[in-house]
């Protein structure tokens, strides 16, 4: 017997329609590439997104066509999220920090028909356009009177003029909620990038889950600033979660340095922000250097790579800002786990609470996880045993875009498919997951594993250290031993022995790195993560003194 409830498909357009109808006056504030702040309401945003959808339709875009963006976090990018997805096409967000060759490869692989870009990226567009003959239109997102004349890019047009050609009376269509809505490629640190293709249903469910009190606790009283870019896994879903709950959105555009972000936080009363640890390093340095305080920020989600405990502590103890440590990946839209205490933990001593909050945390409803050994046997949840982390859920991919004949899943004895995350983790009795490493970064010493993340977290807490990375280096006796690579803070005087001293009594002695090497900067990838592949390359001829 079927239930007797209305069959309303879960479509992203319904989120923006809801925001426009029920939070019509709530603002979206954006720093523009033109330099100034732009503000309008959800009502206005929805109207322009519909008009854009109509313009796209007039330009021949139909169901399933891909429309790409190379853009900062801003209102035009938001309109593309909804305009493209809401009409039944697929919004493909591209990370501008990738190499132009990789961008051209991705554009061709996705078969994008239109690319909308912030004018900042014009030189990049000029470099890739000749290699992407299938792109029919390149839309420059800038006021028409500010658009540079005489572009060499064929098919270049202005976003505002293009949008103005759309019909304002156009209405959102209804269709199957399993229709594709958005495409994100992983950064491809190994081999070519791979596309994760989200559906309307997965995106709406993810937006609901992200809003939950033990996730982002997003509400209509919030002003949310995603520092995490809209070109990286849909800014962790905030462009959907924000309008879903009726929160004000504050979009920082191209100015992501500590000073600009701080000023925007204060001017717009930002209560909640989200970003990777490296952006917070810049912000915290600015605040500490200028003895500033946050007047409205009360919490922040930090994820994408392990958040150093020292950062969690600095936010909480110095600035009264709660850090919600989160873990996820492109293949899971991206939210998997977040660290928030349960009722039973409230009576624990502060030190034990702190330890829990440093973990990557508990799953949200919708995502299931487990750890397994190399033959797929499930491992115990004791907080000590580590294994390969597998996930499943309605916002986890089944396979990669245009690789449908390859099955990335692992199947259990009941035939259920699980996605192997490539992460190694422990899970404790209360279901708190803790990432030990990416499986390819874990250091194997004498048959035992050493967590590079744990060693990095301790190193970064040293006051002279700006950033730190640990890689495994070949060793004749132990197979591999850890090497600590450090970028010092400007002007800091510190020796290898000073830094190694921080490990004393805090880790098993045999985990201590065999050596420290100083570099000017730790290389970061397109999403702000430490590029260990590059470091391994850089240190390929290095020999440990113990070897
Ligand atoms: P890419 O795979 O392209 O680098 P993703 O953003 O999808 O980009 O990366 C997901 C990976 O990032 C995870 O599998 C995990 O290794 C790492 N990661 C994400 N969040 C955390 C976290 N809080 N702690 C440790 N690692 C994290």
CATH architecture of the largest domain: 3-Layer(aba) Sandwich
> Main sheet: which strands, in order across?
2-1-11-10-12-13-14-15-16
Gap from first CA to last CA: 70 Å
**Structural class determined from secondary elements:** alpha/beta
The CATH topology label of the largest domain is Rossmann fold
CATH class (first level) name of the largest domain: Alpha Beta
- Strand element count: 26
| Contiguous uncertain segments of 5+ residues | none
Please describe the biggest sheet, giving its number of strands, its sense, and whether it closes into a barrel.
Answer: 9 strands, mixed
Percent strand: 15-25%
Give the tally of structural domains: 2
Radius of gyration: 24 Å
Helix content: 25-40%
According to CATH, the homologous superfamily of the largest domain is ANL, N-terminal domain
Shape, per Cα inertia axes: globular
Number of H/I helices: 16
What's the quaternary structure here? single chain
